[in-house]
Amino acid sequence: MFRFSTGASVFRTCFKFLRSLPHALVLYITSHSLRYFAGFFTVVVAIFALSLPSAYVVEEPGPTQDVLGSLSNTPVIDMSGSRVKENHDTGKLLLITVNVSGVPGYEVSTFYSLTSWMDPHKSLLPREAIVPVGQSADEYEKESTNEMDDSQSLAQNVALQYASKHLGIKKEDVKVRLHIEDIGGPSAGMMYTLGILDKLTPEQETGGKTIAGTGTIEKSQKIGEIGGIRLKMIAAKRDGATWFLAPYDNCNEVVGHVPQGLRVVSVKTLDDAYRALKAIGSGHGANKLPSCNVK
Where are the membrane-spanning stretches (predicted)? Predict the structure, then answer.
């Protein structure tokens, strides 16, 4: 049961309450206007709102990995077999990653999303554009891992098919193992494939240069488009690349966003990409390689 007090009783209750407070606190309360406390309350509410989980995903340039190098003292591309030759390529083939926050299991606050929106080196997207509605953290991790596993397997098969046709190397004469950690998705397929082809030959395809790239690889040897290419170009330039191989289908996103000092080459197929790699490394015909134009 509730009992409602009269106006007089409410006044007496408030007066008794104020008298029971320390004198300094009473002076503080009575000396500040209602507007002051309203502002303070607004700030508290705003801080609470900014700390809530965001409905957006934040993408930013991630780390790169040299597929011709090693990871934890193990070659990223480990090859064995009767047709494997000693390879001492001093250049680098960088696969590029994008760090993604705000996906299941990696939630971010509204405040972080807001500050990321103002950062030209980050990209803000609705979560539904990246992750299906209702997908759990475990499901997201599994899907991302499966895509990477499929990409690695496809890269091995496509590379060995290409080597058999163009380099005279039989698939059964080579065994390939890829060692990659903490990378998901299919976008490194092209760079895995180029790395395998590079390590199958004694030549230095890179010519000692640092060449980055991104793109999926398909059974047809087509190079497929990927997401986050603007951020990947930033990461490539940051880590010393001077050349960047980009899928032809991503060219509209590339134009107008190429970092200074980075040369982008448009590729449609694995043959395009491998020929571009050799031209860049040798310096013969590199200036004639196709760049990206708005379609």
Answer: 36-58
